[in-house]
Amino acid sequence: MNCGQIQSSLSNAAEEILRRYTFTVPLRRITKDVMFSGCSMKANDRLALFLPGADLDPREFKDPERFDLNREKSGHVAFGIGPHRCLGSHLARVELQVIYQQVLERLPRFRLDETRPVRFHAGNVIAMDSLPLRWD
Ligand code: HEM
């Protein structure tokens, strides 16, 4: 692989990880009573925008649960949408690519240990508690 191809793979990996494992759940407060998609919401209700669900929507992504580094369409909403869309998204993208590159350069080959579960916890930000790996 030449430099350009490595850069392109790292960029695809960063985008697919952001899509498949979207971890941000922004919160909103409803300002007035409203009916949205058959759901009644009252002023002052709190609303969690479950972006991980949007990024697994089969109407948007073919075979959405599949982690696919060659996925043609990206267009995920891990950085939010609208006026509060992440201000740091460009910096975050560069940081992710640098982290993956540095980690892969330093670690020996590894793979998931499929005998042990990957554990996540939910919340305003979804996080990974445990990611068991095996070294080849
Ligand atoms: C992978 C890393 C990141 C993800 C997934 C992410 C995701 C998000 C999301 C979903 C929002 C929208 C929140 C909302 O709608 O209420 C947001 C907002 C924001 N993010 Fe990020 N972010 C990341 C990294 C960063 C970094 C590195 C910075 C700054 C250096 C940053 C700065 C901000 C700021 C200032 C806002 C608020 C924008 C506003 O309310 O107008 N983010 N981010």
Largest sheet: 2 strands, antiparallel
Distance between the termini: 22 Å
- Broad shape: elongated
Helix and strand succession? HEEEEHHEEEE
Number of helices: 3
> Domains counted in the coordinates: how many?
1
How many E-type strands? 8
Decide which structural class fits the backbone: alpha+beta
Low-confidence stretches: none
Cofactors, ions, other ligands: protoporphyrin IX containing FE
How much helix is in the residues?
25-40%
Radius of gyration: 18 Å
Bin the strand percentage.
15-25%
Please give the order of strands in the largest beta sheet: 1-4
pLDDT averaged over residues: 93
Task: Give an overview in words.
The protein has 136 residues and is α+β, with helices and mostly antiparallel strands. The chain has one domain (3-110). The chain is 29% helix and 18% strand. The protein is built from 3 helices and 8 strands. The protein has helices spanning 3-20, 51-54, 89-106, and strands spanning 27-29, 34-36, 39-41, 46-48, 110-112, 119-121, 127-130, 133-135. The strands form 4 sheets. It has a two-stranded antiparallel ribbon. A hairpin with a 2-residue loop joins strand 2 (34-36) and strand 3 (39-41). Helix 1 (3-20) packs across helix 3. The longest helix has 18 residues, at 3-20. The chain is elongated. The two termini are 22 Å apart. The mean pLDDT is 93. The site of protoporphyrin IX containing FE has 11 residues, from helix 3. Protoporphyrin IX containing FE is lined by residues 24, 26, 78-80, 84, 86-88, 91-92.
